[in-house]
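Task card 7
Instruction: Convert sequence to structure tokens.
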Amino acid sequence: MRFPLKYAAFEWLKEKKSATDDDMFEALNKNGNKCSRDDLDKTLMQLEILGLLTVRWVAKDKRRLEVVEKVDEEARIPRINE
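Output:
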């Protein structure tokens, strides 16, 4: 059974924490998920809209992908002692 591309891409990136889009494309095709560049671009856009990863341009044809780490709301807001 093959997982949907979105889940396979996110799970792979969670293990790596950050990578380039070329690395992800090669890894996904190597693991049996046959995808084109267009499929990968659509998947990355979906994951970015969901807030699971960020995409930054490194060079003209290269992008850096990073997993967004969620910060606990209570840990982020300082408490005021009254």
